[in-house]
Amino acid sequence: MGSNSAEYDGIREHGIREHGTRDRTGHGTTGVGRRDLIKRSAALGLISVPTMSFLSACASGGGDDQEKAKAGKKTAKNPLGVNDTAKLEFVLFDGGFGKEYAEDAVKVYEKAFPGAKVKFSATQKIQSTLQPRFNQGTPPDLIDNSGAEQMDMGTLVGKKQLTDLTPLLDAPSYDDPGTKVRDTLRPGIVEMGQFDGEQVWILYYAYTVYGVWYSQKALDSLDEQYPETWDQMLAVCAKAKKKGMAGWTYAGKYPYYLPFSLYPMIGKVGGREVLDAIDNLEPNAWKHPAVKACFEAYYELQQKGYVLKGTPGLDHIQSQTAWAKGDALFIPNGSWVENESANVMPDDFDLAVSAPTGLDSSDKLPFGTIWASGGEPFVVPAKAANTAGGMEQLRIMLSEASSKNFTGKVKSLTAYNGGTDGIELTPGLKSGVAALDVAGENVVNPRLQDWYVQLQKEKIGVSGLGEMMAGRATPAETIKKIQAFADETAKDSSIKHYKHQ
Fold first, then answer.
1. What is the pLDDT of residue 45?
2. Where are the beta strands (DSSP E) in 398-498?
3. Which of 117, 128, 394, 480 gets the most CB atoms within 10 Å of its CB?
4. Crossing angle, helix 34-41 and helix 272-279, to 10 degrees?
5. pTM tops 0.90
C-alpha cells in the first residue's frame, strides 16, 4: 500500500504506499505456525501491494445497525445464497492497481444478478470515509482495506467487526464446482487472513514480492552485478555516485517502506526467530545483534552520502519517479511499483527485483532470502447489509478470468493459484517470480504491519527509521526508541496481541 498508490500516501500500500495492508487485546495467537506458512509460501506466485495503514482504527460499535438482506435460495450457480435483488455496495482502495479490474468483476456480478443494484466507489481515504459508517453500523458489503488510511485489521478483528469468510472458502470455486475456493488459492493466503484460530477474516487478493528494485540496464552500465554482501553494496553505491547517481532512495515521507528490504535483511542475518520475536513484541527483541548490524548498515548509506539528496522529503511517488529517471539505483518497494511507476519508467528500464543484500558469509540464512506475502486485504464487514453478496463478489474475483484480467492489467499476480496462461509476464513480474525461485523455502513474512499498524507505520517507520535515515538519530538511539514503542504496545491492554505459534 501501496499496494499501492497514491499516497501510500497515498500509497497503498501497498499499504504502504498507500498500499496496503495490515493489522491487530487480549492475548490471542495466530492459528498457524510461521515455519509451515513459510514453507508453503515458498512455492508461491507473486506480487501485490503493499498494504499498510497509517492511522489506526477505533472500530467501536454503536449506531443504528442497517437491516440485513434476506437470504436468497442456494443453488449450484448461487452457492452462497445471494439475494438476487439485494443491493451490493463495494468500496475499493484507489491505489496503484487502479479500479478497472474491480469494475470488470462488478460487471460479472451484475450479469449474474441483473435485479441487484451495485454501488461501486473507489477512494484513497478508506478510514476517514468508512470508520464513521462502522461506528454507525452501516458499513459497505465489501471493502478493499488498503492504503495509508487503512483501518487497523487487528482492531477490526478484535472488536468483531468482520465477517468470517470460511463460507466463501468452502464454497465451490467459480470455475469448477468440484473444487472449493480455498483449494484454488496460493499457499499461505488463507493463513494470512487468520488471527486467532480457524476463522478467516481477510482475503488478500494480490500477492506481493517485497525487496530491492532496480534497473538492470543501470546496473549493467556500472559493469556490476547485484551485491550479495554489504561491502559489495557500498562499492556499487560508490561507483554509482562517481557517475552522478545516488545508490538509494525511498519514500521519505512514508519510511515504513524501508522495512520491505530491511526486515528480510534482519531475518537473513539473524534468522527467522529474530523477526518472530519482533512480531511477538518480546522484550529486547529490537536489541538483537542482527537488528543493530542491519540498522548500522542502512545508516552507513546515509552517512556516506549514498542516499539521494532530499529523499526524506519525498513521498512514494516522488521517490519512485526520481528512481525511474535514473537519479538513484536502488529503492525498497513491493511488486506494485511496476504498475505504479509505469508512466515514468523508460521502455528500456529492464526492471528487476532482488532479495536484500546481506552482511557477509556469517548470515544465518542464504542470499536470496526475501519477503513475499499477500496484499490488498479485502474484508466483508459483520454488520454489512449483504454479506453473502460481498462474498460472492470475492468469489467472482477469484475466478480464473478475473485473476487473469487483474494480472494482465496491473502486472501483479493474485491469490488465485494460476491465471497466467497466455499472459506475457512483464520484466518486474518475471523478475519477482525468479526471485521466489531463488528463495526457495527462504521466504519470510513479518506480520508486524498486519498485526500492529500504528506501531509499524507511525512509530517504527516515521518516528524511528525516518529519523535515522534523515541523519537525525543514530542506530543506537533509534533501536532504543523503537524498543520503547514495542514495549508500550505490548503493555497496552486496549490492543489485541498476537503471537506466532
1. 36
2. 413-414, 443-444
3. 394
4. 120
5. no
